[in-house]
Amino acid sequence: MMSSARGTEPVAFTADQLADVRNLLTCLSAARRSSQFYPPEHPAVEHAIGDLKAVVERFHDEGVEVALTFFEGDLVFGDRVMTQESILFDQLIRDVNSLGIDSLRIAPGFSTEELARAVRLLGSDTTDIAAGGGIERAIAAARLGSVRLGRVRRAEPEDDEVEITVRARRAYESAVDLVRDTDRVVRGEGTLSAGPVRAVVGELVDTVLASRGAMLELTALRDYDEYTFYHSANVAILSLAMGSIITEDQRFLSSLGTGALLHDLGKLAVEQEILNKPGALTPEEWQSMRDHPVSGARIVARVPGLDRSAAVIVLEHHVAYDGSGYPERARHTSQHLASRIVAVADAYDAMTSRRSYSAPRSPHEAMALVAASSGNSLDPTLVRLFIRMLGVYPPRSVVRLEDGRTAVVVRPGETDPLAPAVRVIAAPGGERIEPYLVDVGGSDAPKIDRCLDPASIDGEVDEYL
Ligand SMILES: [Fe+2]
């Protein structure tokens, strides 16, 4: 579908053909609208279908098959992402996607009736389609012949908990790999292209929607040698988990995931000595650090096919809710909701990670600091949402259960912020035991008594995740 994004060159279209793509979309929108208002035999419908047919035939006469893809907020004609048309025909893309359709192909030899039926189907009401047995049945019933409507390919929901865990782990690893590759790009090897970013973000969005808990469990992972890569993946997951509570809109989540995953892209270009400097930075070094949102946004904005709002998120992730923060010029406009989400996720994950200049804080402490920033640097509504989502005892917390056993929190509670899933690691007397998983929210499960200092346990927290 997106062969341009997967490395092969897009087919070259003439300027006239590209202008005709806009005509095609205008005619398609008009025909769709008239078929929503009038019966099939109405002159307005016949006229609009006639106009659409004429544009399609023009392409066919020049040997070009009409293949439109409506893909997560973008319009693709053949292999070409139509940037301006994606914005102009935003509503059309959303409407078509909401029906469960992601492509329209019209092959030579199509009939006017087939085209008219396809257009009418594209203008259907989603509830009518559902009542009639779903989009697949509606497409089959419409007898579209040479006009083909493609279904949105979603990852199949897998009920099996193990499967979800495997998928979540795979999505997480591909996100870390992508940031590692991006690091090479920023250092001058190769180029950043939209395809792999979109594929990884798409997988993250699907997996977060399938199981927020399984994904949040993974954000407890840490790799101190590759802090930036893991941090980026964690911020993407934490942001998507928050975003998916607010909305399941694919386009919003896709921009959010892209911006979150690439938020520190500009930092990859900052010299290692500055990044890892344990002491205070000189004013010049500090300036070079403060430039990273601008330089990162610049890189993202230049990648064809990458969501524009992702660049806004990268630019704004250090702008504070109260109007402070940097870069200064981004402080004068209101901060995008997605940027405010990323700011919360970034603050929390950075605090719980060990960096060259600071020891990691316990999840509990970090949560308290995030709460203390509510209304200052962070959006209070989002902070409340974040605390509710990760729970009072976030993953990685070391806790004492009421019966005296010691446990490590592995996953937030699905419904109760006080009842996460934990792995018991020590008996009431403190002796180390073979770890086992307990869902604290279960009816006969013990309650959490309090948080412990992670340094107080035998071994490292990572061993028990
Ligand atoms: Fe940053």
Write the topology of this structure.
Blueprint (H helix, E strand, L loop, with lengths): L14 H23 L5 H19 L4 E6 L2 E4 L2 E2 L1 H6 L1 H9 L2 E6 L5 H11 L3 H6 L3 H7 L5 E5 L9 H26 L7 H17 L1 H7 L8 H20 L3 H12 L10 H4 L7 H8 L1 H10 L6 H9 L20 H16 L10 H10 L7 H11 L7 E4 L4 E6 L9 E6 L5 E8 L8 E5 L13
This protein binds fe (ii) ion (FE2).
Verbal overview:
This protein has 19 helices and ten strands. By secondary structure, the protein is of the alpha+beta class. It folds into three domains: 149 residues, no CATH class; 230 residues, Hypothetical protein af1432 (Orthogonal Bundle), CATH 1.10.3210; 67 residues, no CATH class. Strand 6 and strand 7 form a beta hairpin. Helix 12 packs across helix 16 and helix 15 packs antiparallel against helix 16. The protein is globular and about 80 Å long. The N terminus is likely disordered.
Q: Which CATH first-tier class of the largest domain would you pick?
A: Mainly Alpha
Cofactors and ligands present?
Answer: fe (ii) ion
Give the DSSP E fraction (strand runs of 2 or more residues): 5-15%
Largest sheet report: 5 strands, antiparallel
Task: Provide the gyration radius in Å.
Answer: 26 Å
Low-confidence stretches: 1-10, 154-158
Task: Work out the helicity level.
Answer: 40-55%
* Domain tally: 3
What is the topology, as strand order, of the major beta sheet?
Answer: 3-2-1-4-5
Given the helix and strand composition, which structural class is it? Answer: alpha+beta
Q: Give the H and E element order.
A: HHEEEHHEHHHEHHHHHHHHHHHHEEEEE
Annotated CATH topology of the largest domain: Hypothetical protein af1432
Q: Count of helices?
A: 19
How many strands in all? 10
Determine the mean pLDDT. 86
Architecture of the largest domain, according to CATH?
Orthogonal Bundle
